[in-house]
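Bug report

Summary: structure tokens for Nitroreductase differ between web form and batch submission.
Environment: batch mode, default settings.
Steps: 1) Submit the sequence below via batch. 2) Compare with the web form result.

Sequence submitted:
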Amino acid sequence: MDAVKIAARRYLPAAAFRMLKSAVVSRKLRSAYRYDLGRYKEFSSSIVATENQHNLRALITERYHSIEKGLSLPRPRPGFGAGVIHTLLGHVDEYLIRFGADDFLETVGSVLSAYLDFNRSVGVADSEVPEFGRIISVLARVGWIPNSAGVRDVSRTDIDSAISGVGLDFFLTRHSVRQYAPDPVAADSVEFAARAALKSPAVCNRQFSRVYSYLEPKSIQRILKVQGGANGFGDQLTGLAIITTNLRSYWNEGQRNQAWVDGGLFAMSFILGLHAQGIGTVALNWSKSPELDQEMRRTTGISQEEVIVMLVGFGRLRSDYKVASSPRQALASVLTVNPPVSFH
């Protein structure tokens, strides 16, 4: 293929070469977009939302989190959210019929219980609470854990204590590392980073990103062979993670790219969770063709409904090592304060 490209560039007029290149690129792009479109249509809730447990959980999570957000406002309106409560209870009824009561619905019950507590605290009679009878019926079936969902009190003092000593240096000392010590990374360290990643923002609290962590050298090298971007240093990695997000968490055209947004936030938190323990990382790109995407799935067993967002290589730091300087842009080129806004 490279020889054909070289010959075409050499012998074709420039305009003809551009037309040929445009046709080839367009064909590849159409193929890739069809691949993404087909998977999104098949697994997202855009067409059918209630037959798969994950899809239905995503819908329910989006609804109950709307109630949580309402409860967290400076001045929640008594009896707010009638439409949201109605839709939420309909989804819960569907879930109970298809899958029965479980720990997930217990979380929903805890939100509904907090909603009742709020309305009672502001003097709303039970008879005036939207869908009161249905809420009581659902609570009897799914249960709840007091003060486990809805809203919680946070102290500014606790936040100040947690972030004391954490400055810009924490972020500025994170580098993409390609030189590692041979010492293994313990599973506990990976769990620490995964817990950090769990606190990443996710659209409407739909926390459906995952970490597949590999600590066995043979598995790491096999996966890196498919990824193809760790030449010259991959043999030094003692850990490797694949970050994914599930397409069943989303619906409709507006959320078609949300898996990469949620997965990117999750991945960055995972990286910083490793950095907080003095573990070096290197972000490994997964912007690949449909063919390579399928090869990675065959290699790892990652399901078709998950988007592979990126890979993260990691390992223990040497006492001294070199990193790419990677000069950053000037702050003025990335930060605009109070840009003009149109009010027309």
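Above is the batch result. After comparison, the two runs are identical; trailing whitespace caused the diff. The mean pLDDT is 95. Residues 53-142 form one domain.
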